[in-house]
């Protein structure tokens, strides 16, 4: 790992650009989480009855409304909103709208900071390569993940915990990994698939060798406190330790009464290769990682396996089986956020270890940054579900009309959207150049 001072500097610079855009739109998804925070801090209750008309993402339980989202992101925002509200920095929300400052705060804490931490964690592991800075920035800023940075969703926070858990597992800290992956599940419930695969991986190791039993025991012990808190919350709000808010949503009833509707064949392409919600078009550098994995892999390079590959496939199949597999109004496959982060982490290792991959990485990364920034500068994630060609049907028309987003902190300070957008492009390019030029590792990165 690099020196602590360098880590802090890299993180703060990355966070500066991750938090440049802070969402304040009254989106049903983000409002549902913010309503829970407002209800706890301002009214002393988990019930969001006062804000129920502001979002369709709500659960109706015994005549009262609750947020149906995974609760940990909102719970972690609560103390910060309490402090800001107590100091008079953020006013109370009303039945007419959620305070935009609360939405910005949630976007910062649940979106921008996790996104910057994800990039910093990956950079820290690849630090000994001179190309670590540009690769990590192009990999993540050049993806759909950047579009959700600054928005009060739970996916990036869950992905951050999952990536940290994977790194702890690789380092042999099974108890820390268990705690972190349990937190990830409480941020984004489908991450439970990854947690189960890792449990199976550790169980197989324990079966093969006696010394592996300690890792399995530590993993389960580390996860236990979070699992207990999760089950307690679910029981109090939804009536059972494994009851979910999705089962009580009053605005949407899935076919057959379950969110699992059966495999949608069109979703397999739609979530992988399609420009509609495909993972590879919305995170181009993963395509290069796939090539390196399956066609150019050297014997000592890790295969995806039970830690990344199998969980990725199972999560994909799960998302392909839910009713709204496309994620509603979205940019890219937001339900595959954690899968994307784990695959990106693995892919970055292989790209840096392959000399010929550097130029293709630069090209694909630049294309990804351009696409993600065009979306972030105009419509963010508000791409209607019926638009199958988001770039041509939504983003380019918005750009033609110069519909630049005002959800930028320089705009809050009085700048125009045009000036704020130009400043972002210029300072982003300068920061990337300076960070890359001042990065002086002592050795090249070894093969993974």
Describe how the helices and strands are arranged:
Layout: H1 4-18, H2 28-43, E1 58-61, E2 64-67, H3 72-86, H4 100-125, H5 132-141, H6 144-148, H7 155-170, H8 174-187, H9 192-208, H10 212-238, H11 265-270, H12 279-282, H13 285-294, H14 309-319, H15 337-352, H16 358-377, H17 390-400, H18 409-412, H19 417-438
Summarize the structure.
The protein has helices at 4-18, 28-43, 72-86, 100-125, 132-141, 144-148, 155-170, 174-187, 192-208, 212-238, 265-270, 279-282, 285-294, 309-319, 337-352, 358-377, 390-400, 409-412, 417-438, and strands at 58-61, 64-67.
Description of the structure:
There is one protein chain. Strands 1-2 form a two-stranded antiparallel sheet. It has a domain at about 160-250. It is about 60% helix and about 0% strand. About 50% of the residues are buried. It is globular. The protein has 19 helices and two strands. Mean pLDDT is about 90; it is low at about 445-448. The chain is an all-alpha fold. The longest helix is centred in the middle third of the chain and has 27 residues, at about 210-240.
N→C terminal distance: 15 Å
Q: From N to C, what is the helix and strand string? A: HHEEHHHHHHHHHHHHHHHHH
Counting DSSP H or I runs of 4 or more residues, the number of helices is: 19
User: Approximately how much helix is present in the residues?
Assistant: 55-70%
Hey, roughly how much beta strand do the residues contain? under 5%
Number of strands: 2
How are the strands of the biggest sheet laid out side by side? 1-2
Mean pLDDT: 92
What form results from the Cα inertia axes? globular
């Amino acid at each position: 790992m690099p020196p602590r001072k360098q880590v802090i500097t890299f993180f703060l610079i990355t966070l500066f650009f991750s938090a440049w855009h802070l969402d304040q739109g009254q989106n049903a998804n983000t409002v549902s989480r913010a309503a829970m925070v407002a209800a706890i801090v301002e009214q002393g209750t988990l019930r969001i009855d006062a804000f129920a008309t502001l979002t369709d993402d709500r659960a109706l339980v015994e005549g009262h409304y609750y947020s149906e989202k995974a609760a940990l992101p909102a719970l972690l925002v609560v103390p910060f909103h309490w402090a800001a509200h107590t100091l008079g920095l953020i006013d109370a929300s009303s039945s007419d709208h959620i305070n935009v400052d609360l939405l910005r705060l949630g976007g910062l804490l649940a979106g921008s900071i996790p996104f910057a931490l994800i990039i910093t964690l990956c950079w820290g592991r690849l630090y000994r390569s001179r190309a670590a800075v540009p690769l990590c920035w192009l990999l993540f800023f050049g993806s759909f993940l950047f579009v959700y940075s600054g928005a009060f969703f739970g996916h990036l926070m869950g992905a951050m915990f999952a990536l940290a858990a994977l790194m702890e597992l690789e380092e042999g800290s099974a108890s820390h990994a268990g705690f972190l992956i349990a937190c990830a599940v409480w941020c984004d419930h489908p991450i439970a698939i990854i947690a189960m695969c890792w449990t199976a991986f550790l169980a197989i190791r324990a079966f093969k060798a006696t010394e592996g039993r300690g890792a399995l025991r530590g993993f389960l012990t580390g996860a236990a406190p979070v699992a207990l808190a999760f089950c307690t919350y679910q029981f109090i709000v939804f009536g059972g330790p494994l009851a979910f808010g999705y089962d009580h949503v009053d605005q949407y009833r899935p076919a057959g009464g379950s969110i699992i509707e059966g495999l949608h064949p069109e979703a397999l392409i739609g979530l992988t290769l399609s420009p509609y919600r495909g993972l590879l078009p919305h995170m181009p550098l993963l395509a290069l990682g796939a090539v390196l994995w399956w066609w150019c892999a050297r014997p000592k390079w890790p295969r995806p396996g039970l830690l990344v590959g199998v969980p990725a496939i199972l999560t994909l199949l799960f998302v392909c089986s839910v009713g709204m597999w496309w994620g509603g109004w979205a940019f890219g496959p937001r339900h595959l956020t954690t899968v994307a982060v784990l695959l990106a982490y693995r892919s970055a290792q292989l790209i840096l270890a392959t000399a010929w991959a550097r130029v293709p990485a630069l090209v694909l990364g630049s294309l990804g940054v351009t696409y993600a920034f065009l979306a972030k500068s105009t419509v963010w994630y508000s791409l209607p579900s019926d638009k199958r060609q988001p770039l041509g049907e939504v983003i380019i028309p918005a750009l033609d009309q110069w519909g630049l987003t005002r959800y930028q902190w320089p705009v809050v300070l009085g700048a125009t959207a045009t000036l704020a957008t130009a400043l972002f492009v210029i300072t982003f390019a300068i920061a990337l150049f300076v960070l890359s030029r001042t990065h002086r590792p002592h050795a090249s990165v070894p093969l993974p």
